[in-house]
Amino acid sequence: MAASAGGARAEDTARPFLAYLASWTEVKTDDPEATRLARLPGYITHVALGFTRPDLAYDGNLDLSRTGLLFPFSGQVLKGAIATLHQRHPTVRVLVSVGGWGHFGWDARNFEALARLVKDLGADGVDLDYETPDSGCTRTPDGRVACADDARAIAVLADLRRVLPRPYVVSVAGWSVGAYGEGTFATAEPRYGPYVGMMLAVLRSPQARGIDLVSIMAYDAGPTFRPEQAFRAYRHLWKGPLALGIPVMPSESGGPRFTVERTARQFLEVLGDPQGGAMLYAIGLEPPGPPGPDNPDYRSLALTICVSLGLKDCAAPMP
């Protein structure tokens, strides 16, 4: 399996910590400084605002009503919150996340409107969360993986980078089993399903040079899935910053709960990689039941990740 050249720039080689912010959970306010976004700690390197639709409509004037974002405040407040966060923590990159489960309008994608939204908000780029109901991945007789969605997924990435050239940031969220299916990882569990290998063609393509960060949605893949193995599989393909994902909510597919102890242990694999880091999904989500070490909320998980990765200022409060 050929490894692609990573698209990371020299200044982006520190350990990444990307945290999604669930827009529908934000504080209802007219004061940008009171938003959860504006009060995030500086140990987060990227915050991804979830989620805009690929086929969003945005005509300007910070009107978010047809974008897919569900913030309980205006676009003017969101822009002010981003500016406040940048003022407090100049190195934090704010990304508008496009896609996510249920937002499947990729053939009608309107990335020109997305680029206008990013620029009007004063954001730093886009997080591409390319998901489809079925990527149609199968193994060919010669042991390769081919997916019905390969050409479209590559075109989506190319179109996004075309409208937002560097220095705008493009991060990509990878499916849990997206780097499985071939070579050393041909028999990695779970072995079967329409998403096994869905990221192989994208990360091998020349368009992958336009990616600045890859995060792995290393959860909701069933009890046989091993996140540390997924990290190794993605690293085989991608040589830039790579973030291992941790969920706040319990698994919907029978996988183990990410307790505080298990989360800390999970990053032992990452610590051996100088560009290894973390992704948290998501700030604002609250697990069922009272929070504790065996049922951590996003604040506990963020602190655990910060300490486990040896980041600075981990005592800074998470709103």
Automatic annotation (TrEMBL):
What residue stretches are annotated with the GH18 domain? Answer: 19-165
- Superkingdom of origin organism: Bacteria
- One Pfam annotation reads Glyco_hydro_18
Name of the protein in its database record = GH18 domain-containing protein
One GO BP: carbohydrate metabolic process
